[in-house]
Amino acid sequence: MKDRPIGVFDSGVGGLTVVKQLMKEMPNEDIIYFGDTARVPYGTKSESTIRKFSIENVLFLLNFNVKLIIIACNTSSAIGLPFLSKFFSVPIIGVIKPGAKAAIRATRNGRIGVIGTNATITSGAYEQEVRSINPRIKVFSRSCPLFVPLAEEGWANDGIVEAAAKKYLSGFKEKGIDTVILGCTHYPLLKKAIGKALGKTVKLVDSAEETAREAKNLLEECGAKYPGKRTGRTKFYVSDAPEKFMDVAKKFLGKDVKAAEQVKDV
Ligand code: DGL
Prior knowledge:
Rossmann fold
């Protein structure tokens, strides 16, 4: 059990934020990453489609005998996780609960904002999670559908992102929010523009760190954490041509990673 890999999936490249933190937190674990680059984005799709994709991704990762699956995608965590946990015996965690916990720790005035894809925001998953931990906290949500294509386009530092952020987030200002959850894997890439639109006093929470910590705790609790001293290997699989993914992965993880393999049928 202990030397089995951890499986991670996302709709594309965004889940690499979680992989990066996992490598920091548990450098001796092997990781299998699946980026569903052929079917991204998930955030604009219906619940039944997101569930279908999520099940297929879990089934794909189970081929590698993974000991834990991390859904490193907010949309799939929001829509798919409650469903997947019922049907699979392998432990599965998402990014919603860790993100909610981190925001609750960060807020001083109990007013939290959540931004994400249409599917994540419509699901109300973050509000439910925050309220289940602390019902006194007020949560304000806003979907920002243009952020994913802007990040994919590599326009993180373009004025167009600042304009979109200003438009989406102006309503948050009058709500007196002091903490905002970046409830989408792509949004950390736009942190600068989002931070500028919200003002310096608002803390931005990215759930990747907290998710990696939760994964470590869970493996320790089940006695499934790799105990030895080795350098873990990470293998990447994608559903579309791997070149673009590899460019981003190398830049993002800051190291030379082995080429991703394209899978034909997930
Ligand atoms: N990975 C998705 C998320 O975190 C963003 C991209 C998409 O819409 O698939 O919600």
